[in-house]
Structure formats: structure tokens, C-alpha cells
User: Fold this.
Amino acid sequence: MSFFNSIKKSSTNLSKIAPLCVCSMMLAIRIVLGMFSNFTLSFAPFVKIGFSFLPIVIVAYLYGPVCAAIVSGLGDILSIILNNPTAFSIMPGITVCYILEGFIFGIVLYEHEISVGRTILAFVSVLLLCRLPLNTLVLHLMMGIPYIELLTYRAIILVIFAIIEVLLSFFILKALTKMPMLNKIR
Assistant:
């Protein structure tokens, strides 16, 4: 499927009941995971590790880049608001990175057969286009830490965690493809 057709088809999912319901449930799961499953390692204070990517990957596979971008962006905003309602610490740069991550996952995974190679491609693309350069740039601008130092530091941990993310995503998406109800929720 071409790039623009993928975007167009993903956009049409926003007008259907089943995709909206599944996206809403995945958004709720994303918010809960964003609030409770994220953690920072003591030796890596500038890297947040968590499992809130899983609902985004599922939405990306099922409904494409537009739906995944919306769920990812809203998930970031709502988890921050619900986690700390008195101090709005929404960082637009980080939210844009999450939106781009959802979009990239959707472009790579939507309407394609799930394979280890495709899953690796999705996570390497997100890592090289969003998490390393853009998220690190936002952190650099916020904290004043030299960009190259921060990038090197984050790269080591994010690459290691990306292996876990790829394996989890691959097995969850493979299990999802074996569900008999899959065609009903698409």
C-alpha cells in the first residue's frame, strides 16, 4: 500500500464505530501504562522506560498511521494531566515526538504481514527518527546538557531496551493476528 493510500485508509477508520471503540480502549490502556508502568533507572535519569508503546503498536497495526498518531499524542497529554493535575508539565516537543512515533509505527506496520524484520524496521525507524534525535534535542533544550553527551548516553540504553520492545511487540502482534475476531474489529 502506498504512503498516501495508507494515510487515507487510516483516516477513514475514524468514522467507523469498531475502530473508534478499539482506539478508545487502547488510549485508556496507554494512559494507564503511561502513568504506572514508566520508570527511570537510577543510572539513567534521562531515559524513561515503560510499556506504553504497546497499545500504540497495536493501533498502528490495526488502524494505521493517523489513528496511531492520535492515540499516541492524546495518550501523552492525558497521562500527564491525570498523573499531575495541578502542574501542567506538558512538553509540546515530546508530545510531537510521540505523535510522530505513532505515525511511523502506522506507516511501517499497517496492512503488512507481521514479521520480525518488519517489527525491527518499525522500532529502528522510531529510534533513529524520533527517540534519539528529537527527544534528545527537546531534553537538551530543557536541561542544557550538551546534545552529543546526552545523545550518546540515551543511545546506549534505548538501543538495549529496543530489543525488548521488538520482541514484545512481535509476539503480541503475532498473537493478535491469530484472534478469530480480528476481522470484526477492523
In short: The beta strands are 39-41, 44-49. The chain is about 75% helix and 5% strand. The radius of gyration is 16 Å.
